[in-house]
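TA notes. Do not distribute before section.
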Amino acid sequence: MHTEQGPEILKNFVLKICKAKQDWSMETFIESTVESLSKIEGNVLCGVSGGIDSTVAALLLHKAIGDRLRCVFVDNGLLRKNEEAEIEEMFKTNFKVNFTPIYAAESFLEKLKGITDPEQKRKIVGEEFIRIFTEFAEKNGPFKWLAQGTLYPDVIESGVSKGPAAVIKSHHNVGGLPDWLNLEILEPLRELYKDEVRKVGKILGISDKLIMRHPFPGPGLAVRIIGEVTPKKLEIAKVASKIVEEELAEADLYDKVWQAYAAVGDDKAVGVVGDERKHGNIVMVRVVDSIDAMTADWTRLPNGLLEKISNRITNEIEDVTWVTYAISSKPPSTIEPE
C-alpha cells in the first residue's frame, strides 16, 4: 500500500526468487475447506455478525455439514444505525441456514459502564459474546464447536500468529476469548485476508452489496467511542457514521474506499448555535484506502464532500460542534481508534 509497485516486488520475490508455485486459488480453497469441515464431528454453533467474514464462514460450514450448523446473531447494542434489523432481514431472506437472533444490548452496555481502557473494552465484549454463546449452547445443544469469521490480520494483531508479532490490539474473537470457554473453536477463514474472503463470497453467490460492505470491528462502536461507552456518545457515533456512509454513496465513492466511519470521544470544543455559545462534542471522521487492512492510507476526499459531511453532522446532531478529518495512515496509526 505504501511502497511503489510493492505487490509486484513481493510477487517477484515469491515466484521468481523463492520459486513458489502459483497453484492456489479461491476455488481450490473452497473445495479443500468444505472437504475438511465435512469430517468434523458434532454440531456447530456459528456466531454471525452480518459482515462478509462470518457470513462466508457460515455458508462454507452449511455447505459442509448442513443442518448440524446453527447460526446465532447477537445484537450487542454496539452496531451501526438500524443494522440489527438489516442483518435479520438479510439472513432470513437470502440464506437457507438455521438462524437465531439474540437481543443482548443491555448486558453488553451494562458491563462496559465506567470502562475506558481500549484493551479492557475489547476483552469485555469478547467474553460477553462467549458467555451468551455458551449459555445458548447449553440450552439448545449439544454443540461441540463455536465457529467464527476470524481472518489472518486479526490473528497477527492479537499477537497469536506463528510469527514474532507483538500484540497491537486484541480482537474480540482471538485475544478476547476467555479461559473458561468450553466449546472448541472453529475458524475456517483464519489464514485468509479480507480481499480473499470477498472472492470466496462472490463464488458462493453472495450479493455484491454485502461483499462490498465496509469492514466493521467485532467489538463494534465500543472501539469507535474513545473512553467510556455512554448512550449519548453511542448515538453520536451511529448517526455521524450513517451520514458519512450516505454522503460517500451519494458521491459514488462508498465502494471505492476500504472503510469509513465517524468516532467520538470525551474532548469538547466551543461552537456557536444561533447567537449562543455551545460546548459540544468533537467528531472525528475516518476514511481509508487499503487492500488487506494490514496497512492503510487515509483517503484524499474532495473538499466539497468533506464540507457536506461536516455540515450535516453539526446540523443534524445537536451535541456536536466540531468535525475533524483523520489524516494518519497505518502505520503508525491503526484503522480503528481503539
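Switch to the second chain here.
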Amino acid sequence: MDKDEIKTDIENKEDKDKSFYKKRIFDIIQIGKRGDLPSRSFDIFIVIVIILNIMTLILETFTELEKYQHIFKAVEMVTMIIFCIEYILRIWTAEYLYTKKTKARARLRFLVSYDGIVDFLTILPFFFLSGFAAFRLLRVVRIFHLFRINAKDDSFSIITRVLLDKKNQIFSSVFIILVLMLASSLCMYSVESAVQPEAFKNALSGLYWSMSTIFTVGYGDITPITGLGRFLAVVITFLGVGVVAIPTGIISAGFVEQYTKAQNQAKKKKIEGRRRSTENVIVESDSPYIGDTIRKVEDDYKISVAVIIRNDILVLPEDNVVIEEGDTIVYQHI
C-alpha cells in the first residue's frame, strides 16, 4: 500500500468519525426516545433553560426586584448563549433531518421550517430588538420551545390529532359563532343606535358587545337600555351558551374517539402478541411430560396449555387430564 492509499484511508476514516459524531449530536439534540439517556437528558436540560429564560423575562418587570437585575441579565445571557448554540447545531445537522436533500437545501429547509423560525425569533429580540417595546413581545415566542419539545409526546400528539381530525366540524361551529355574532351586532344596532349612538355607531360597533355576551363574559361596559334590546340580549345569551358548547362537544368527542382507538390498538397488539408466542410440542416416548397432569406441567414449566390434540381430537386442558405419548400440546409461555 503506497502513501496515497494510506492517506486516502486515513481521510476516509476521519470522515466516517466526523459523520458518526455529527449524527450522534443530531440524535441528542432531537426529541429523544426514552431509551436514549443523553438525548432525553438534553430535552430536560433545554426545558429547564427555557423555563429559566421565561421566568427571568417575567421577573425583570418587577420594580421590587430591581436590585437583582444584574442576576437576571446574567441568567438571560447564559440561556441565550445556549439557545444560539442549539440553533447553530440544528442548522449544522439539518442534513440528517431532511435526508433526501443536499446539505445546503437541508439547512435552508430548516431555516424556513417551524422549528427554525421559532429558534430564530427566540434569539432575535435579545440581540437586535430589545430596545423596541413592541418587538419585545417577540420574546414570548420562547414559549413555543416548550411545544416543540413536547411535539412527540403522547398527550400533545393526541391533541394535534383531535384538532386535525375534527377540523371541518370545528371550522363549521366557529363559522356559526361568527354568524351569530354578526347577526347580534346588527340586531342591537337597529334597536339601540337611536338611544345609544356612541356605543352603537354602526352595524359593526356591536361586535364587541355580542362577543362578550355570546361567550358569557359580560363586561358590563356596554349594555342595552331599551326593553326590546334587553329581550334580545337574553335571547342572544341563551343562543350563545348552546352555540359555544358545540366546538367543546366536538373536541371532547374527538378525545373519546382517540382514546378508544388507542385502547383497541393496544388490545389488538396484545392479542397478536399472544398469537405469536403460541407454541406446540409433540410428546415423544422419552418425553418427561408423559404421565403428568396438565396442572403439574403448567406449574413445573410455567406455561399455559391452550389445547391438546390427541388422535386428531381436540382435548380440553383440564387440570386432571393426563398427558400421553403422541399428544400435541399447544401452549403459551406465562
